[in-house]
Amino acid sequence: MNTGTGFRTGLILAVLVAGLPGVMPAQAARRTSAAAVSGDTGTIVYTVDGVKILHRFAASSDIVVANLYLLGGVRQLTAENAGVELLLMDASERGTGSYSRDQLRNQMARLGTSIHTQVTRDWTSMRAEATRQTFDSTWRVLASRVMEPLLDSAEVDLVRRRLLAAVRQRRDVPDALAEFVADSFAFSGHPYAVAPSGTEGSLGRITVGELQRYHREHTVKSRMLLVVVGNVARTQVERLVRASIGKLPAGTYAWSLPDTLPRRPSAALTIDRPLPTNYILGQYAGPRADSPDYHALRIAAAILSGQLFTEIRSRRNLTYAVEAPFVERAVSSGGLYVTTVSPEVTMELMRRQLLDLQNGSINPDGLDRLILQFITQYFLDNESSVQQADFLARAELYYGDYRRADRFVDELRAITPEDIRRAARRYMRDVRFVYIGDASKAPIKTMERY
Question: Which stretches in the chain have pLDDT values below 70?
Fold first, then answer.
């Protein structure tokens, strides 16, 4: 189960809190984290024909990554057309105004490069990964897919069937189903309740005409942020942008952080399934990325993961998978996840651990070591060019300035035990649970006490 960026770091802290070996000495952790972010003189920001560009030079790497973000995510969608941007981007791989389907495939195979699309609740991205020698040619393919998708009806239907198959498969994978239902349940009434990958109903309703209209109205420069990481000159990037996406309409879109979710009581939704174990995922709404509580809640979730690992997996042997995920989005969320054959006992133990975090004491020295380990692992998870591009984009869009990435370490290390308790009390409440498994064992009353 992986519902957010904090998952792997949460598990590492779980091991540390459990008292197992592997704590990195504080001095070594400081050196690693400082090296990851210090002196970001290699990143610049500039605009070419209305397209904003973050450009990080990486002279030591022959790989160039270009991430083109279409901002807005699910705020551009409704329940009726959810999945339209994914369908549009994936269908563009089947032919454009400059390349037939076979020409696209042959060109990418000849170059040995790749283009990937991803839809999230905050944006849709198309990413090109190439070498310095193949970057120009790869960019031209990406730009053609963004600017002039052919959208042949037969090809669109092929892509639609593939996306529908993936959506239907969610019903057969308990973790995927729990995550899908939990988002719509926890964020009911909020744009995040809309699934960016769509539903069977929405994908089935989208016509080729609607795709064409959506492309015409929403593929505009004001929605775009381009992040380039690699050994490529600014003049080269400017030339490529000016000859391609710089020619698109400007549009009137303006990025802003979405509103937070109104308070609502805890609740539980049960899906009866004959499974060998029961899957439980609860979610609560966290603060916006510009809140001082954002990082405190991130660390609180990691600490809670450690406590749950120790008590429920190590001591009690009630599960093989338990965590308290932190979901890194413009409006964060967190949760409680476990698979268990003893849901009543397990949920009560999880509640006690949560109350202990909210009201108990946190050793400042231990917290310092945990945060240093968290920082080290976070930057290890963000060291590739692909991950650096996303890291820069998050800093720019979530915090309003890509240079906030430089202050990430200091902001984490400034977190105090009281900051963590405050964030835990303020946000780790009103949890809305999805339970998949034996409905007769569902601990509804216990879940509604969170």
Answer: 1-41
Q: Closest by alpha carbon to 6, among 431, 280, 303?
A: 303
Backbone region of residue 437 per phi and psi (left: phi > 0; alpha: psi in -120 to 50; beta: other values): left
Query: Virtual CA dihedral for 343, 348, 352, 357, nearest 10 degrees?
Result: 40
DSSP string, 264-324: ---EEEEEE---SSEEEEEEEEEEETTSTHHHHHHHHHHHHHHHHIIIIIIIT---SEEE-
Task: Answer yes or no: are the C-beta atoms of 74 and 82 closer than 8 Å.
Answer: yes
3-state helix, strand, coil in the chain (%, to 5): 50, 20, 30
| Parallel/antiparallel/unpaired status of strands 326-327 and 278-288 | unpaired
CATH fold for domain 51-247: Cytochrome Bc1 Complex; Chain A, domain 1 (3.30.830)
Domain spans of the chain? Answer: 7-36+258-447, 51-247
Q: What is the per-residue pLDDT across 13-46, written as a single tens digit (0 to 9) for each?
A: 444 443 332 223 333 333 333 333 333 448 999 9
The token pair that represents 363 in the structure block: 């050793």
